[in-house]
Design goal:
This protein is of the alpha/beta class and 375 residues long. It is 30% helix and 27% strand. It is built from eleven helices and 18 strands. The strands form three sheets. Strands 1, 2, 8, 9, 10, 11, 17 and 18 form an eight-stranded mixed β-sheet that branches. The protein has a seven-stranded mixed β-sheet with strand order 6-5-13-14-15-12-16, with helices on one face. Strands 3-7-4 form a three-stranded antiparallel β-sheet. Strand 10 and strand 11 form a beta hairpin. Helix 2 packs parallel to helix 7 and helix 3 crosses helix 7. The radius of gyration is 21 Å and the shape is globular. The two termini are 35 Å apart. Bound molecules: flavin-adenine dinucleotide. The site of flavin-adenine dinucleotide (FAD) has 37 residues, from helix 2, strand 12, strand 16 and helix 7.
């Protein structure tokens, strides 16, 4: 049964059918966090409803979808949805190149839409109900139950997980913490990878094109991607990077098939991230590394843990999920926040050049981006 074409399974219910529920958990957002939570909750026997405002799971993704090794190991997606990248080629402002290779650690580029649809089918296979075209409009925690308006329909649930992204409407509605600090990411997708070597993740460090962060290019299962992120208020110079990448890797402008962009929270965990029967997961909770801007791994890990904690609570008299999850909250540490602060300045190109040319800085970069790390 296909997630994107099966309107019967995923259409919103008309208001004429009245209220639905109570579900054990209503999950708002069918992204990485929401679908990981849904699979865990439904596998533990909970009545699980996932709603997403998009017309199709994984439509117009706001992510490059590159998985770090730990995220790949946690998901183990089908081969056709991922491509392993074992080496990083770092290009500094003067266009000199440094290379890293790690045999036991890799990145994985993905067909993101296909990956999210596969995750949705997994959650559905475990028993979760998934509805698209189903936006969360508002909700109230009445003590015993959450009542939420999903499109025109009233949905009742014992718990609500807000996995609805960086600008979470759930967080706003329930007066939970909001993300306030962001990077802006922009990416172009090509259907043909040209001469882009699929073994490499190409990283560009140059504050003329990506002040405060990096640019990147890589082959993925459907072609290739070229993107960058910048910190506000700088403008992303995607056209400059695109021209450079098209010339370097013989990518054809006519092969561009998709444009992606989105906000990446980089201020760390929001406070509070949970209140009463409502918990935030993934980007909604600010669970993104302030330094690497990677959020998929934490979204997957914390989503699964939240689903499991709810099963333990509702089925086995375990502690309230927010309490049980406190120890599992991702901690990004003073070093990562400090380096984020430094990157925000942003450093001038001569300093970036010095960093790219200095052995200790390259070793540090290798450790941050290319080794197993705690959450
Ligand atoms: C351009 C860009 C590139 C990135 N690249 C990477 C990368 O390569 N690797 C990495 O690890 N991280 C990357 N990140 C970060 C990563 O994408 C996020 O951390 C991750 O997707 C978070 O997953 P999530 O499930 O919390 O939220 P999202 O993936 O944002 O999912 C939220 C879902 O909620 C839905 N939603 C929103 N509002 C409502 C509503 N009112 N009602 C119902 N549904 C709603 C949305 O439609 C969406 O499907 C990138 C981010 C950006 C912007």
């Amino acid at each position: 049964m296909s997630i994107d074409s099966n309107t019967e399974a995923f259409a919103p219910v008309s208001p004429a059918t009245g209220a639905t529920g109570p579900h054990d958990v209503l999950i708002v957002g069918a992204g990485f966090a929401g679908l990981a939570a849904a699979k865990a909750a439904a596998s533990g026997g909970l009545r699980t409803l996932v709603v997403d405002s998009k017309p199709r799971i994984g439509a117009r993704p706001h992510t490059s979808g590159i998985l770090v090794e730990e995220a790949f190991q946690a998901l183990r997606p089908p081969d056709h949805l991922v491509r392993r990248v074992g080496k990083v080629r770092l290009t500094g402002p003067d266009r000199n190149i440094r290379e890293f290779e790690q045999t036991n650690y890799g990145f994985y580029t993905t067909d993101v839409t296909g990956l999210l649809q596969w995750m949705a089918r997994e959650a559905q296979g475990a028993g979760a109900e998934i509805r698209v075209n189903a936006p969360f409009a508002r909700g109230v925690d009445n003590g015993d139950l959450i009542e939420a308006l999903i499109g025109p329909q009233l949905v009742r649930a014992r718990f609500l997980f807000g996995a609805d992204g960086a600008k979470s409407p759930v967080a706003r509605n329930f007066k939970l913490g909001l993300n306030e600090k962001f990077l802006l990411g922009i990416e172009r997708e090509y259907s043909d990878p040209g001469r882009l070597d699929p073994d490499y993740l190409h990283v560009f460090l140059d504050n003329r094109i990506a002040p405060g962060y990096i640019g990147w290019a890589a082959a993925h299962p459907r072609g290739a991607q070229v993107g960058l992120a910048v910190n506000a208020p700088h403008r992303p110079r995607i056209e400059a990077l695109k021209s450079e990448a098209e010339a370097l890797f013989r990518l054809k402008p006519a092969d561009e098939y998709e444009r992606r962009s989105g906000l990446i929270p980089c201020g760390g965990l929001v406070h509070p991230w949970a209140k009463g029967r409502v918990l935030l997961l993934g980007d909604a909770a600010g669970m993104v590394s302030p330094l690497t801007a990677g959020g998929i791994r934490t979204a997957l890990d914390f989503g699964r843990l939240a689903g499991e904690a709810l099963v333990a609570h509702l089925r086995h008299n375990g502690p309230a999920p927010a309490l049980a999850l406190r120890k599992a909250l991702p901690r990004f540490g003073v070093l990562r926040h400090g380096l984020r602060w430094l990157a925000d300045l942003p450093p001038p190109n001569w300093l970036l050049q010095m960093a790219v040319s200095s052995a200790p800085a390259v070793t540090a970069a290798r450790r941050i981006f290319f080794s197993r790390r705690p959450r």
